[in-house]
Design a protein that fits this description.
Elements lengths: L2 H5 L2 H29 L3 H27 L2 H22 L7 H29 L5 H28 L5 H20 L12 H8 L1 H11 L2 H30 L5 H23 L7 H20 L3 H29 L5 H14 L1 H15 L3 H23 L1
């Protein structure tokens, strides 16, 4: 491929799109087939909750890997391992009665690789992209990421409409996407390869580096706020993620096309939010992002109260918009506030908080949703309203 293609960061934008498309299609199949087989979100919540443990381990491990090892190689190898896990799972799974243990193991491996890959991708960006282009690049990356979420329900819905489709097909599709991502990441021209650390540095990365990263975060009040924002958003999202297929199964006729449409509308919202951020000339401020979350909270409360098909789609659209703007902006906030030497550790800690809350949310809402049904949206809205109101007050105090 041409040098211009490789030096402009294009592979770094496209590779997450490729892997996310496969992963999103796989999760659509997993969510729908499990809910269809059991009629409840409990098993799905257990798988996602236990799988979330590997996110925690990966977030602790990633600081030492990303700050001391070659970040490009970390990206490539995590994609390769993810592909191998999906291929092995596709060969071993019993499509007639999928083994819970196997699904948990595959989820553990995939979540671990994502927990390492995502911070590595965010950490390498400032080394490849000039600082004055970071906000636009991050917005473009998130927008294309959202585009994968538009195609995924179309692809997933089409696959689900095929009567012969099974878990193996979804796993192999995901494996193909990871192989493509690995090829694209291998094309990145990386100007600052990290030298191989000594064994002493490796052990430091697991404990001492994490402690040093925490000290760095608490010396910078804004980073603490960003960590809290990511954590509370993912706690709410854990409920949102489980509630969506449940509503699609138990409301509006239980047709898979409705769930696919909801996901498509959410992804369109992500495109809208990403494009707005990408073409925004002024720098986004944290308080603006927090206020947008209050709008999202109001829509959740309104949609849960006046629940129907159209308010459900409005919830999905609003989520897509605020999610893309939150993550497109907060990534830039963190990159601007962090020295490159600490970038891997800080992103690891940020995602430790982000991922650490997900098992709690998955296990909690997995049991709550069958009781409250669509009224769960009101609970999620109230949580967002309180949390981001607190963040706005903290932002004003810290200036």
């Amino acid at each position: 491929m041409g040098t211009k293609f490789r030096t402009t960061g294009v592979p770094l934008i496209i590779s997450p799109f490729a892997s996310q498309l496969g992963t999103a299609v796989y999760l659509i199949g997993l969510d729908w087939l499990l809910v269809q087989a059991t009629g409840t979100t409990k098993l799905l919540g257990i798988i996602q909750g236990i799988g979330g443990i590997s996110f925690l381990f990966g977030d602790i491990l990633v600081g030492g890997l990303v700050d001391h090892y070659n970040r490009k190689r970390v990206l490539v190898w995590t994609d390769i391992i993810s592909a191998l896990a999906c291929i092995l799972g596709g060969l071993l799974v019993n499509n007639a009665a999928p083994q819970t243990g196997l699904l948990i193991m595959i989820t553990l491996v995939l979540n671990l690789m994502v927990a390492i890959n995502f911070p590595a991708a965010k950490s390498i960006i400032p080394e490849v992209i000039p600082s004055d282009r970071l906000q636009r690049f991050n917005a473009a990356s998130n927008t294309l990421f959202s585009l994968a979420n538009i195609f995924s329900p179309i692809v997933g819905g089409t696959l689900l409409a095929i009567k012969q489709i099974d878990f193996t097909d979804f796993m192999l599709f995901n494996a193909t996407s990871f192989i493509l991502a690995a090829v694209l990441n291998s094309l990145i021209i990386y100007p600052h390869p990290h030298s191989q650390p000594s064994s002493k540095a490796w052990y430091r990365g697991l404990l001492t580096d994490t402690i040093e990263g925490l000290k760095y975060v608490f010396r910078h009040g804004k980073l603490v706020q960003f960590m809290f924002a990511m954590g509370i958003f993912n706690f709410i999202y854990a409920g949102f993620l489980l509630l969506s297929p449940y509503v699609g199964k138990h409301n509006f006729g239980g047709h898979s096309i409705n769930y696919s449409l909801f996901l498509t509308v959410s992804a369109i919202g992500g495109i809208i939010g990403g494009l707005r951020l990408m073409f925004q000339t002024n720098r986004v401020k944290p308080v603006s992002v927090y206020r947008e979350q209050l709008i999202y909270a109001a829509v959740l409360i309104l949609g849960g109260t006046l629940f129907n098909f159209w308010t459900w789609l409005l919830i999905g659209l609003t989520y897509g918009i605020v999610q893309s703007r939150l993550f497109g902006s907060i990534t830039t906030f963190i990159q601007d506030a962090t020295d490159d030497a600490y970038m891997g550790r800080i992103f690891g800690l940020m995602f430790l908080c982000y991922d650490g809350i997900q098992p709690v949310g998955s296990l909690l809402f997995g049991g709550v949703i069958p009781i409250l049904h669509h009224w769960t949206y009101i609970v999620l809205g109230l949580l967002a309203l309180v949390a981001f109101s607190v963040l706005i007050r903290l932002d004003k105090k810290t200036g």
